Amino acid sequence: MIIWLNGTHGVGKTTTAALVQQLIADSRVFDAEKVGETLMDVYPGLPKTDNFQHWPPWRPLVVETARRILDYTGGTLVMPMTVLVEPYWREISQGLASYDIPVHHFVLHADQGTLRKRIQDDSVMGPSSFRFSYLSPYAEAFQSWLGKEAHVIDTTEFTPAQAASEVAKTVNIS
């Protein structure tokens, strides 16, 4: 199965994913951003974009890579990845469903003030204009489809460990 951790940049997906992996036996983290980084390595042959998710190969490559990893390793993939464009999410989730891979889709959510503070105070990445630029698109996606599509975990008052525990409990593996 796949546990997909969605939400805006800076909400704690990567940190939570590592903690979820510790709570679920035979699980591993697969960051689909690595697929985007691979495509960026061949960028001169691809159209200019501000987000690798807009490149049509990214979505099926994420599906195929996840499928191949699961075929090889079995178990559970924990995938921390922001996807805010509904048709992109549909393409990915339908692609995974076509291989009978169950997906538990979570949105790690926090109010805008909390998100701004987390991004501003991030000790690893520091304040990031890239992350700040996604707060509004995230809010729009959350209101229009994302908040209805997935299991929402409000992390405003949660630690990453509490969020990870909630994910594990929700998929009945704790």
Structure description:
The protein has helices at 13-23, 33-41, 58-73, 86-98, 112-120, 129-133, 135-149, 160-170; strands spanning 2-6, 27-29, 76-80, 103-109, 151-154. It has 174 residues and is an alpha/beta fold. A 5-stranded parallel β-sheet has the order 2-3-1-4-5, with helices on both faces. The protein has one domain: 3-Layer(aba) Sandwich (Rossmann fold). The mean pLDDT is 93. The protein has 8 helices and 5 strands, in the order βαβααβαβαααβα. Keywords: ATP-binding, Nucleotide-binding. This is ATP-binding protein. GO terms for molecular function: ATP binding.
Descriptive key words:
about 170 residues, alpha/beta, Rossmann fold
**Low-confidence stretches at least 5 residues in length (pLDDT < 50)?**
none
At CATH level 3, the topology is: Rossmann fold
CATH superfamily membership, which one?
P-loop containing nucleotide triphosphate hydrolases
Question: Largest beta sheet, briefly?
Answer: 5 strands, parallel
- Tally of distinct domains: 1
Number of E-state strands: 5
What is the N-to-C order of secondary-structure elements (H for helix, E for strand)?
EHEHHEHEHHHEH
The averaged pLDDT comes out at 93
Taking all Cα atoms into account, the compactness measure Rg is 16 Å
